[in-house]
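User: Show me a protein chain along with its predicted structure.
Assistant: Here is one chain, sequence first, then C-alpha cells.
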Amino acid sequence: MPANRMSKFEVFIGVWNTTGEVLETQTSPAGTLSATDTYQWLPGKHFIVHSVDARFDGQPARSMEVLGFDSTKQQHFARSYDDQGSTEAFVLELKGRRFSIEGKTVRFNGRFDAEKNCLTGLWELKAGKAGWQPWIKLKLVRA
C-alpha cells in the first residue's frame, strides 16, 4: 500500500487546457466548452485542489473541488463547488490510464494517453428513467 493514498493522482498536478463538445440534452442546447483546469497539492499531499475557469459558449462558469481519500469508505472522492451555489459529491477511480468520476446526477469516463499528457472522455447526465445521456465530449491537454 502506498504511504499516501493520493499519490496516484499526481498525474493531474499542473495546468490543463480543456476543450469540449457539449451535446444537446433534454434541458440544454449543443455548444462548446473551453476551460483551464488547475490541480494543486495542499500541504502534506493528502488533498488536491482543482480549480476550473470555463466558458460554455462564451459564458463563464467557475468551480473548485477538493479531491481526497475517505478512509472510512475506502474510496477516493471529490467535492465540487461552483459559482452558481451548487455542490456535488463524487467517487473517483483511477486504474492505470482509466479515470472515472461518479456522482448522483453526472458521471465521467475517460482515458489518459500513454504519456499521460492528454485525457479524453465523456461526461453523462442522469436522465431520469431513461438512464444516462451523453453530455460533453471532453479533452484535457497538459499545458
